[in-house]
Design brief:
303 residues; ABC transporter involved in vitamin B12 uptake, BtuC
């Protein structure tokens, strides 16, 4: 049981990290479909830096930097040059997959540097709960901290009020004197940092190695999780662990050898994503109340 819970945590953490960043981005009225590209660039940068220096901390920093760089490209294109957000996000994902393959070509098959797990004498050795609660790595704890921090900032601070105002009606926010473009630049870069952190987790903790396209669609699931959570951070935590459990359960069922096609089991997380989105789309009232009204709509300030 303990091993199952631990694997669910490792499967859920990259989804949670990427999704919490995207939630903030969408709360400001921006739709970023480039999460997958940011994650995979973060993963390869993290692995390359950690392998070259032997330091997982440097790898994490490099992963965040890679994600922020990709996010900056997206911000420049959509907020400065007012390109279509959907098309730009898709292009960014394709760019990220290509660039990561190029950078990571020489690192394929090399042993990675694993991110160390926390060890607290006596507490980590406790039966059942010891390793689950007191034996995780720093990025697992960071994902929980981010959830609580984003919830507090969005709903308890003036900064969060401005972000939600920009996402609710950017013209009104601009009329009140808020710099809509600057706010969106900030949220996009934050989302890129979280996506890069999620990628770093994949190549340093989940599977400490580099494999081309190792994100395997997790960026798209993170996007779906934001809708699944109705743009509320606390629901995002539940959704990420639910999807992580589905991901791991598929692997365990394969190991049992029940004769179920492995292709079907591997597609379970994506099937669950589709079913969840269909169910949520049926509740139009809930979606309308929480979804940012300006999402995906460009803003051109008065000259």
């Amino acid at each position: 049981m303990e091993a199952v819970v631990l694997t669910i945590i490792t499967a859920s953490t990259p989804l949670l990290l990427a999704a919490i960043g995207e939630l903030v981005v969408e709360r400001s009225g921006v739709l970023n479909l480039g999460v997958e590209g940011m994650m995979v660039v973060g993963a390869v940068c993290a692995f390359a830096a950690a392998y070259s220096t032997g330091s997982p901390a440097v790898g994490i920093l490099a992963g965040v930097t890679g994600g922020v760089f990709m996010a900056f490209l997206f911000a420049v294109m959509t907020q400065t040059f007012i390109s279509n957000q959907v098309a730009t996000g898709l292009a960014l994902t394709l760019l990220g997959l290509g660039v990561s393959g190029l950078i990571g070509e020489s690192f394929v098959g090399l042993p990675g540097v694993k991110l160390a797990q926390l060890y607290i004498p006596f507490l980590t050795d406790l039966p059942i709960v010891g390793k689950i609660i007191f034996g995780q790595d720093v990025l697992v704890y960071s994902s929980f901290i981010l959830i609580f921090a984003v919830t507090y900032v969005l709903f308890k601070t003036r900064t969060g009020l401005i972000i939600r105002a920009v996402g609710g009606n950017h013209n009104s926010a601009h009329a009140l004197g808020y710099n809509v473009v600057a706010v969106r630049y900030g949220t996009i870069l934050f989302g890129g940092a979280c996506a890069g952190l999620a990628g770093a987790y994949l190549s340093l903790a989940y599977t400490p190695q580099w494999v081309e396209n190792m994100t395997a669609g997790r960026g798209w699931i993170a996007l779906a999780l934001v809708v699944f959570a109705s743009w509320l951070p606390r629901r995002l935590l539940v959704g990420a662990y639910l999807f992580g459990m589905v991901w791991i359960m598929g692997l365990y069922v394969q190991a049992l050898g029940l004769g179920i096609p492995s292709q079907l089991l591997s597609s379970l997380p994506y099937l669950v994503t589709i079913v969840a989105l269909v169910i949520i789309s049926g509740n139009r009232t809930l979606t309308k109340i929480n979804s940012p009204a300006m999402i995906g709509q460009p803003f051109v300030p008065d000259r």
